[in-house]
Amino acid sequence: MNLKKILIAVDGGPTAEKVSLFGFQLCQQLHAEIGLISVVDTTFLMTDGTVTPREIANVSKNDFKKSHQLLIEKIFKDFKVWTFVEEGTPYEMILKTAEEWEADLIIIGTHGRTGLSHLLMGSVAEKVTRHSSKPVLIIPTKT
């Protein structure tokens, strides 16, 4: 298998750096192009009426863009990184972007949630793996 493009999915949390670093090291070894994706989950956006769901989504998108920039400056430095900040259901947008960008591999972290939190929130990594036609590498981020 020839891995030329690797899509790294990160959320805005503290695990983004660990997942990005692992993905970057793999991309370096394989001389692969790097894609970085974050998804604003608009599935459950609700407000108290003072701001609209659109305003919340825009703020979240800007936060992800800033987060991507910080990761690029800290980890990826002088390497070209494709960045994607999408809106929608996270696993669906990760898969859609992987298809459109023609990624050969998806790297995603997992928080390792169990029990009720896993039942309520589900696992984006699990859904990506279950629905992907591309290989998926899951990085455990439990500390």
How many helices? 5
- Would you tell me the overall average pLDDT? 88
Give, in spatial order, the strands making up the sheet with the most strands.
3-2-1-4-5
Strand content: 15-25%
Largest sheet: 5 strands, parallel
**Contiguous uncertain segments of 5+ residues:** 117-121
Kindly, what is the distance between the CA atoms of the first and last residues, rounded to a whole number of angstroms?
32 Å
* CATH third-tier fold name: Rossmann fold
Helix amount: 40-55%
What are the key terms here?
single chain, 143 residues, alpha/beta, Rossmann fold, five-stranded parallel β-sheet, globular
Give an overview of the whole structure:
With 143 residues, the protein is an alpha/beta fold. 47% of the residues lie in helices and 23% in strands. The protein is built from five helices and five strands, in the order βαβαβαβααβ. It has a five-stranded parallel beta sheet, sandwiched between helices. Helix 3 crosses helix 5. The longest helix is centred in the middle third of the chain and has 24 residues.
